[in-house]
Give the backbone structure.
Amino acid sequence: MSQGYFTQDTYHFSHLPFNFATKESRAAYDTAASELASSLTTFAKVVIFLTTHTDEERGDLFSGMENKVPIATEVFEFLQGLLLPLSNIVKG
């Protein structure tokens, strides 16, 4: 990982899980993402690595679980939901 190349005061590593399958889990993500975005405003650059799976038939992105069933969301809708709470640190 990149941690060996940076000192603690020059980088911040965060893990932000998401589940967009229910209103409650979506609200929890929105709150956590907004709090994370606020804590990162002091950094000049923010790099986001996204890891998820895709629906093999449609290519939609895995966005969470509802009643132990995986839910997939179209790419644009998924990215909008993921990045909107981070809008004060994500440009474009």
Notes: Helices lie at 23-39, 75-83. Residues 23-39 form the longest helix (17 residues). Strands lie at 61-66, 69-73. Residues 22-86 form one domain.
